[in-house]
Amino acid sequence: MSEEETDFRGSYDSVAIPKTTVNKVATEVLGSVHLSSDARELLVGFCSEFVQLISSHANELCERENKKVISPEHILQSLEELGFGDYCQEVKQVYEEFLEIEKRRSKTSWTKMTERTGLTEEELIRQQEELFAKARENPLADSDE
Questions:
Q1: How many other β-carbons are positioned within 10 Å of the β-carbon of residue 125?
Q2: To which CATH superfamily is domain 1-83 assigned?
Q3: Could you list the mean pLDDT of each consecutive 10-residue stretch along the chain, which spans 145 residues?
Q4: Which of 24, 26, 80, 106 is the Cys-Cys partner for 85 at CB 3.0 to 4.6 Å?
């Protein structure tokens, strides 16, 4: 096998999307149709290659703008420029759903913390800020004092 060829069982292991993730998506999409192990390996390799293509292009866009962080806009622009513009609307929708879930998760963790401690969110934030200030004053101090 030449260097240009890809052994999906070897060279993608370090950058591959987890096989369980690909298997789960394939099962959800295909339903009762089963994939051979070779077909699954090929799918994992393809998914990894696709992610690498999009992320590499997004990184180039990011560098052109002298930015250090790839944003969702870079990903969407990469999809458009690489000929995958048909996916942009669905990607935007999934991203918005993700943000909603994260927002609820964040509120839920604060709610649990306030219930457990009996303190309000503002009191917890004040305590946290005091601890940060104390740590800045003496970073090597024992936190049990």
A1: 12
A2: Histone, subunit A (1.10.20.10)
A3: 45 68 89 89 91 96 95 96 96 93 79 82 87 83 55
A4: 80
